[in-house]
Amino acid sequence: MAAVGSRRRGALKGAAAVALMVLCLAAAGCGGGGSSSGSSGSSTTASGTPQQGGTAYFAEGAQAVPNFIFPFMSLAFFSVTNGPQFQQLMYRPLLWFGKGTSPALNPALSLATPPKYSNGNRTVTMTMKPYKFSNGETVTAQDVVFWMNILKVEYTNWAAYAAGGMPDDVKDVTAKGNTITMTLTGPTNPYWFTYNEVSQITPFPMAWDISKTGQKAGGEACGHATYASVTTTKSTSKSGTTVTPTSAAAKSCVAVYTYLSRQSGYDPANPKKTNNSLKTYATNPLWQVVDGPWHLTKFTTNGLAEFKPNPTYSGPVKPKLAAFVELPYTSTGAEFNALVGGKIDVGYLPSEDVTSPARSPLEAGANNPRLSGFALEAWYPWGINYFPYNFNSTGDGGNAGKIFKQLYFRQAFQLLVDQPLYLKKIFKNYGVPTYGPVPVLPKNSFATAEEQSNPYAYNVQKATSLLTSHGWKVVKNGVSTCSDAAKCGVPAGAKLDFTLQYVNNGPAEQQLMQAQVASWAQAGIKISLTTATFDTVIGNATPCPGGCSWELENWGGGWVFSPDYYPSGEELFQTGAGSNSGSYSDKTNDANIKATNFGNATLATYENYLAKNLPVVWQPNQAFQITEARKTLQGVFPQNPLLSINPENWYFTK
Amino acid sequence: MTGYLVRRIGQAIIVVFGVTLLVFLLAHVIPGGAAKAALGPRATAIQIQDFNRTNGYDLPIWHQFYNYCRGLILHFNLGYSYKKNQSVWALIQENLPKTLVLVGISTAFAVIVAVPLGVLQVVRRNKPIDYVLTGASFVGYAMPAFLLGQLLILYFAIDLHWFSTEAPQATTVAGILSDPRGLVLPVFSLAAITIAAFSRYMRSSMMEAMTEDYVRTARAKGAGEGRVLFRHALRNALIPIITLLGLSLPGIVGGALITETVFNYPGMGLLAYNSALNNDVPLLLGTTFVATLATVVGSLLADIFYAIADPRVRYA
């Protein structure tokens, strides 16, 4: 869009203007005024006096609109759009994570004090702070038990559930006054339990303890029930897992969950049943009971959400804006047009409209000239980017999986991924490298110096030598062949000839993949690229213990650690883990992960081992978005790496 | 005529059934299936099994198709979209009227402009105005919709501030129509290409009509040029346009993907496109069902209006 030249513009203007005038006059008459619905008009400098009031308009991601309000989501609704950028504005999690650009626990914004561990790390204690729900209810320890009760009967419908985690590792939860005590089944790692387990909890108000419309608040038996009284039986068959409630309290919890889910638009008992609850989000009294700084005042099914301040918000930072509006967009191009047209206060710069590279990943470059009234800053998620090898692949004449299991091959393959170059040339420095299982940026205390040093810096010579010394006849820009089975570890005659399917998210992704193919070719590794939709790629990239044909699948997004903020990898790299797409299996790694989950180990041993052992192909991680914020709107930066937004920090200046 | 209609409706039912069956089968061979598409990369094998059981995807495919047809015929239940958290019918109810407004207005506008343009070119055949309009229609016809849309936004919305950068954002027809200024650019963007096509058809059809015997007879009887043009030639020249309009119905119902994307106006086009992209099987089936219905109805209407426009045509 910005590349359209001015001469072309002049030539077309006259002819099109005549025709448009006809339509314009027929429609409404053209005024000279702009169409901006933005709150602050033209841009000014960042300095100025803070103003109370005003409406800030925020651009949602292209075709990423909120569509689930109940803060207990199954995987089908689990998204940044629904969680950190919608529900959390109204319903606060028990613990808040994100301090500036760090993913650390933020006690000041949490509803409870940081967890204290005792009894050999088997007991966790927290004290609730004096927060109120907007209906006057105090946010109590029992509200936490209420959430845990629902989890106990509906964990298969909870997106963040992982076998061995909550509720499997929780023996009991009790509320006494404003103190909540969790008794665990065994010792835990305090970091892991705080960042990956307690992080999931959102206290539920007793107003939600109902199973039918019009029922008195707390009318069901789930909210006030003790955790121990909620009992279930579990059976697993070929067709899935069934959790059957056995006690009256457990049955009540199922009824409450079903009702709240229906009020959010999804009927877990009968998904095909017509349900128009989405339209009622802003009017349903249930969803107006909030403990966050905002409540919903308007919601349309196409994704427009308007929030106004919760006047009884108990947190330390009260909203200064009069309203906050999230706007839906069909494409990044449409969003850019709206940004330039002045309709948005906080949006994003599509990568194709970046006109100057960033000075470094943490220091943005010059803005697009059309957006001089905006400040820009890259927003990096708390995540890593990679794509899996299929260690059980039957591709490449049955040899692909066997070749991927050879560490020397993975080392050679990784040595040919020139991340710093790709970041600079393709992502214009709006990206960060991935060198291991822990994010290197945003800056954090978990990434070790060893991982940050990039154990496999780009080196064609070294990659070629590794293959040659392991019995491969390397054919530059051709297909290398194994000539010595004993050294290769795979049958003689096996070829380095693989297929990589990726999601073509745009020119940058395409350039990245083509550059990598050219790089791998230098060591005689032939990669044939195919493209598919995101859903097809993740559909293919499924663990297959018995073997299957896919070789390399790249969905482009890697992994974002949320709400499991501790990057300990049990969901990704542990043997048999659900999201271990390539079926990586290593006993040392399994032991390392176990030590970070249930022992006292830090992440260092685990991450240093995997950074070198290469369970996947590490690749550069593009910024989540390059945020544009109107200069007269302050408080937008720094951005939370867990991708939540805090418009209560925002204010307009004169 | 009644017998003809009954036969055509029978054929239409077979076509709709056939297309639905085909799409149903194709949608079920996509890798990963609906479960992985709905649950995302974090889904474990157990969660996928649970999803399939809850939604009946664990049943044999013929049983799934039977359930789908049963729900459709007995309850007009088109299923539920996990991606949108709404029933498919609710999504169609919301998006179809929006699309009908946008594409309907642009098609009507295109006909209103294209027919006189075609006639004018015949009247001024081989004169400068004919050359200019022919050149303009070729440019319009060759212009990619996204480029035209972007250029219109750039000049008339961003530079001149005459219009909004996006189409009306209301979710109801009344709300959309209450913002006519917002409709100008998307309607013009869509209409420009249609005008180019229709005016070419109109020109050639009118030229042909002007050489017919009945035109010569009318002139011999002393009819004025205006009467010859509008009373005798135009009615016959409109027949191809009627056929084109009938065949445009699937497009009117199916939406205008590119225009919807550029002007931030989610309608049927974007809905259908995303359902295919996201492996959203119920939504894909629902949008295909509606588009198929529109195709057979459009074709039927074209035949009926053809008979009305040309009394020589009789269906038995």
In the CATH hierarchy, what is the architecture of the largest domain in chain A at level 2? Roll
Number of strands of chain B: 2
Order of helices and strands of chain B: HHHHEEHHHHHHHHHHH
How many domains make up the 3D coordinates of chain A? Answer: 3
Largest sheet of chain A: 4 strands, mixed
Number of discrete domains of chain B: 2
What's the end-to-end separation of chain B, in Å? 6 Å
Indicate the CATH topology of the largest domain in chain B.
Answer: MetI-like fold
**How much helicity do the residues of chain B have?**
over 70%
* Overall geometry of chain B: globular
**CATH uppermost class of the largest domain in chain A:** Alpha Beta
The CA-CA distance between the termini of chain A, in Å, is: 31 Å
Name the poorly predicted regions of chain B.
none
Unreliable residue stretches of chain A: 1-46
Assess the beta-strand content of chain A as a share of residues. Answer: 15-25%
- The percentage helix of chain A is 10-25%
CATH-level-4 superfamily name of the largest domain in chain A: Dipeptide-binding Protein, Domain 3
What labels would you give this structure?
heterodimer, A: 654 residues, alpha+beta, D-Maltodextrin-Binding Protein, domain 2, Dipeptide-binding Protein, domain 1, Dipeptide-binding Protein, domain 3, four-stranded mixed β-sheet, four-stranded antiparallel β-sheet, 19% strand, disordered N terminus, B: 316 residues, mainly alpha, MetI-like fold, 2 domains, two-stranded antiparallel ribbon, 2 strands
